[in-house]
Each structure stands twice: as structure tokens, then as C-alpha cells.
Write a structure and sequence with these properties.
Blueprint lengths: L14 H10 L26 H4 L3 H14 L11 E2 L11 E9 L2 E13 L2 E14 L2 E13 L5 E10 L2 E10 L2 E8 L2 E8 L5 E2 L3 H6 L8 E8 L4 E17 L2 E12 L2 E8 L4 E5 L4 E6 L1 H5 L10 H5 L1 E2 L12 E7 L13 E4 L2 E5 L17 H5 L12 H10 L8 H15 L1 E2 L8 H7 L1 E2 L1 H14 L4 E10 L2 E11 L3 E4 L13 E5 L2 H4 L10 E4 L2
Parallel strand pairs: 1-11, 10-11, 21-22
Antiparallel strand pairs: 2-3, 2-16, 3-4, 4-5, 5-6, 6-7, 7-8, 8-9, 11-12, 12-13, 13-14, 14-15, 15-16, 17-24, 18-20, 18-27, 19-20, 23-24, 23-26, 24-25
Helix pairs in contact: 8-11, 9-11, 10-11
Length: 537
């Protein structure tokens, strides 16, 4: 599930809580775009020189999780406090195999195949998803594979997850050991071991509906699940609510179903379960839906079409044109259509009053002449640590940082930060990448959009002793605001940096909505398709 990462310092916005969450999960507080949530394959095409093309993959850092959640995932509804699913309420489940077409506004863009069968200690649940996605005019394919071993109550025993597109591949495997989930990640030939504390019974996202479907569903029933998402390596509490009975058309037949209402971080999802307990249809964000079909129909026509341009669909129109953004010192924007409660709009260079967000460009004055780790506060020390997607302790990352700074290894932090930013801006080809962004793969493949630029700069900066974090939100370009990711570097105080655009500080059209743990980054999903912006100054 895509994407989709943060604590006390000169940036006072809601970070102590984020820091404690991330620390308790032993996780790196980054935007996991990765999202949602993202898709994959780099086509050998001529790169447009437009910034719009460069940020094409950024929406997937936010929606990767959403698109996963529809089939691999989510099926959640964070409403009231429901009951947990007891083992006694689950009926015996027969072996099952299911094929589903994936559509985006009635256009077929892929398929999913799931196989469920009994094992000596529980159940095996294997799922394959293939999709063809359009982002900023580039057609890219993604392949996702999840193999899991579940207990008899559908809780997680073991998981093996892989996502690939073109030259990019990321995988995670692991098993629950008491109250610890022990994981191994693989990326660019390098592996990393992680231990994540789990909170009670833990489910995979794509096992939730299987668990719900085996119970006697009654309208108004709600079930709570603590899920582990292998694409973000995060945990979240999700809830499924039974809405009622409904007859739907599936391949020309009227099928009686039980309708499930799903909502995660404000994102509405729907699922229809057939009388045999199989999922017949799912529907979610950006016009994405899944419909049960037969094997032949699922495999036919995959190469015909891609999705509509999801980056453009998710972007937000501006009311006026902004010229010469780099020269602007301040920007005021009225934000409507969404709740700001969980968004991190206040703090640092941003102030939020009522519905008005004001962004002021930072002055590069009163910065540190050097950074000594022992003198840093807890927040800054935390953002020096490596993580599963920011592998700043990997030898290749360390060597590259050292090579970039070899002529000025003892220069002030601002100069070294500019050298690192300029290197990433110059050496990473600017193409949309639909994959889980990680620094090591980006360094190896030398290609990526804003997500890859952000994780690589964060890793190089940390390797060079400069605390670095990732922020996410919207950025202005040619009459619209697009979802985007960039960095915050600690240079004696926190300064924005955008290695995709080559900016330090970043221009004031970078509107931060989220920073922090993967759970917090997912809050952005609730604004997609809803947020309205009015530039007022």
C-alpha cells in the first residue's frame, strides 16, 4: 500500500507525537511513496524538459496505498469503535481461486488473481496484480506479488511481498514472532533486517475481506483490524462496516451481495461480497474499480489500454497564473473542501490561520558553520538515522556522498547541502517512476521523479552528517497544483530543499500538507479529489 513516515526542534508542527510513533515502530519517518501509493516501469523515451513531466510520479507517492488498498488492500472504515473478529465467529473456508479485472473509469488497466487454500497450520493466500498506468503521458507497467501464510483466524504468520517495474524491484519477507514482526527487505542487491512491534492480532490488508466474508454478516456490523502493510512496512487500525444487501450485475447476471462500506483516512471504498463469500466487486479512489471475472477474460486485453493520466486527474486547478515563482517571497492560499485537523499546515515557514495558508521563503542567514552530532537535539539526531528506504548507512551511499564532497569535505553545512542537491539534480534523470522509492535503487538506476530525488538526497545528506527529512504536499506548475515530495535539511535550522527543481530553499508554491510517519503521510489520501485552492496574495 503505497507510498506511504517523523519530531522537537525549530519546526514546531505536531512532530513530537510523530516522532514517538515512528520511534516505537523502529521506522524511518519518511513519505513512503512512497506511497501508496506507486507503479512501475521506466520507458526509454525522450525526457520532456517540463517540470510537470518531472513530478509525474508524485501522485503515486500519495495514491500508491489507495490503489493497493482497493485489491491488495485497505478495505477499512475508521468510524466508531467496533468489535474485534473472534475465532469462534469465523466459519471454515473452502479452497478458492478468483480473477478480477481492474478498471479506471470503465477502462481496463489490469487484473488481479488470488488463490486461497488450506495449509497444515492455517491458510495460504497468494495474490498477483498487474496494472498499466499512465502518468504525465508515460505508460508504465507494475507487477505486485504477495504470498502469505495465515492462522486459522486469518491473522498473519508469514509474508513475502514483491513489487517490480522495469529495472526497479523491492521486496520484503518476514514472520510474526510473538509480539515482534521480523522483516528482511531487499533492494538493489542490498538487504536490511527490521523488527517491528505488533499490537495484538495482526492482519494483512488483503486478508481482511476474507476474514469478514467468513462471518455471518449483518447490516450495522463493524469489525476492527490491526493491519501490517508490506509496501510501507507500517501498521494501521482499519474497520469494515456492513451496509446491507444489494443485487448487482456481474457479467450479465444479477448477483445477491452484501455491501461493505470502507473508509480509510477519509477515502471512501466499497466492496460487494457474494453469497459464497467471494468478493464480486470493489470500488475506490480516482475511478478505480475491480470486477470479478474468469481467467481468460482477465488475461485478455491487458496490453490494449492504460489508465487515464492519474497525475492530471488528481491535480488541483489554480484560480490565477503565477509567473516567476522563484522570485516570490510569500504566497497566501485559501484552502477549502477538506478538514485541516490532521494536516501539518502550521510550523516552520508556514502559518495557517482559519482557511488561509501563508508560506514565506526562508532566509539563508544565521545558519550553522558546522554540525556536531553530539550537540543536536533529539529530533535532528533522529533524522540522521538510516531507514528501510533511506539507506544512509549503506556503503554505496556513504561512498557517493564522500565522492560528491571530496573537494570541500569540511565546508559549512549550507555549501555541502548545495553540492549534494546539485549532484542529485544533475545526475538523476527526471522521469516518472512507478515504484516504491528507495535511495539505493535510485542511486543504482539514476532515474526517478520527485520521490526518488527526495529519498536519495535524504540518504546522501544523512550520510554526510546533515539531518534530512521528507515533506509532501502540492506544488504549483502551469496553472495547476500537483502532488509532490521534497526535503527539509537541518543547516542550523530547518530549510526546504527540492533536488528535482534544483532549489534551496524551495519556492513558496511548495505547500506542505504532511510530514512524519507512514501513518501520517496517509492522511494526504483524504484530500485527493477534494481540496480546493484559491491564491489570494
Amino acid at each position: 500500500m503505497l507510498l506511504f513516515a517523523p519530531p522537537q526542534s525549530t519546526c514546531p508542527y505536531h512532530e513530537p507525537a510523530a516522532y514517538s510513533i515512528a520511534k516505537s515502530l523502529n521506522m524511518d519517518p519518511i513519505l513512503n511513496l512512497t506511497g501508496q501509493p506507486r507503479y512501475f516501469t521506466i520507458l526509454d523515451m525522450i525526457v520532456h524538459k517540463s517540470k510537470a513531466f518531472w513530478i509525474g510520479g508524485s501522485i503515486f507517492g500519495l495514491t500508491f496505498a489507495v490503489l493497493f488498498m482497493i485489491r491488495l488492500g485497505i478495505l477499512a472504515n475508521l468510524l466508531s469503535r467496533p468489535r474485534t473478529l473472534s475465532l469462534e465467529s469465523i466459519h471454515t473456508v473452502a479452497e478458492r481461486e478468483s480473477w478480477m479485472n481492474i478498471f479506471q473509469n470503465e477502462r481496463k488497466i489490469g487484473f488481479s488473481h488470488i488463490r486461497f487454500y488450506e495449509d497444515t497450520t492455517g491458510y495460504r493466500l497468494n495474490e498477483t496484480v498487474q496494472m498499466r498506468i499512465n502518468t504525465m503521458g508515460m505508460i508504465q507497467d507494475i507487477n505486485l506479488n504477495t504470498k502469505s501464510l495465515l492462522n486459522t483466524d486469518f491473522t498473519l504468520q508469514e509474508v513475502n511481498f514483491a513489487i517490480s517495474s522495469g529495472r526497479f524491484r523491492f521486496s520484503v519477507r518476514g514472520a510474526v514472532d510473538g509480539n515482534i514482526l521480523r522483516l528482511t527487505t531487499e533492494s538493489a542487491g542490498s538487504s536490511r533486517q527490521l523488527e517491528i512491534p505488533v499490537q495484538g492480532k495482526t492482519y494483512l490488508i488483503n486478508s481482511i475481506m476474507g476474514a469478514v466474508a467468513t462471518t455471518d454478516l449483518q447490516p450495522g456490523d463493524k469489525y476492527v483490524f490491526n493491519i501490517f502493510d508490506p509496501s510501507s512496512m507500517g501498521q494501521a487500525e482499519v474497520i469494515a462496516e456492513v451496509i446491507g444487501r444489494e443485487i448487482i450485475d456481474i457479467r450479465g447476471l444479477n448477483e445477491p451481495t452484501t455491501k461493505i462500506s470502507l473508509n480509510f483516512k477519509g477515502v471512501s471504498q466499497l466492496a460487494w461480497i457474494g453469497k459464497e463469500g467471494d468478493i464480486l466487486k470493489e470500488k475506490g479512489l480516482l475511478g478505480i474499480s475491480l470486477v470479478k471475472t474468469e481467467r481468460k477474460d482477465a488475461l485478455d486485453g491487458l496490453a490494449i489500454e492504460s489508465s487515464q493520466d492519474l497525475t492530471k486527474i488528481a491535480s488541483v486547478a489554480a484560480n490565477i497564473t503565477l509567473d516567476n515563482i522563484d522570485a516570490l517571497e510569500k504566497l497566501k492560499v485559501k484552502i477549502q473542501g477538506i478538514s485541516s485537523e490532521k494536516l501539518q499546515l502550521q510550523g516552520g515557514r508556514q502559518t495557517f490561520d482559519g482557511q488561509v495558508l501563508t508560506v514565506k521563503k526562508e532566509a539563508l542567514t544565521n545558519l550553522a558553520s558546522e554540525i556536531r552530532t553530539e550537540n543536536l537535539a533529539a529530533l535532528e539526531k533522529f533524522f540522521l538515522k538510516p531507514g528501510p528506504f533511506i539507506q544512509s548507512d549503506n556503503q554505496r551511499i556513504l561512498d557517493q556522498a564522500r565522492e560528491i564532497l571530496k573537494d570541500k569535505p569540511d565546508a559549512p553545512p549550507l555549501i555541502r547541502a548545495r553540492m549534494l542537491l546539485d549532484w542529485v539534480h544533475t545526475h538523476i534523470k527526471k522521469r516518472p517512476v512507478l515504484s516504491l522509492p528507495d535511495a539505493l535503487s535510485t542511486l543504482e538506476n539514476r532515474v526517478g521523479d520527485c520521490n526518488e530525488h527526495a529519498v536519495l538526497l535524504a540518504a546522501l545528506a544523512r550520510a554526510a552528517g546533515i539531518p534530512a527529512r521528507i515533506e509532501a504536499g502540492l506544488v504549483y506548475l502551469k496553472g495547476r497544483f500537483y502532488y509532490h515530495a521534497w526535503n527539509l535539511l537541518y543547516l542550523g535550522k530547518w530549510i526546504t530543499a527540492d533536488s528535482l527543481f534544483g532549489q534551496l530553499p524551495a519556492d513558496v508554491s511548495h505547500l506542505r500538507f504532511a510530514t512524519g510517519s507512514p501513518e501520517q503521510q496517509l492522511d494526504l489520501m483524504g484530500i485527493i479529489g477534494r481540496v480546493q485552492l484559491t491564491i489570494i496574495e
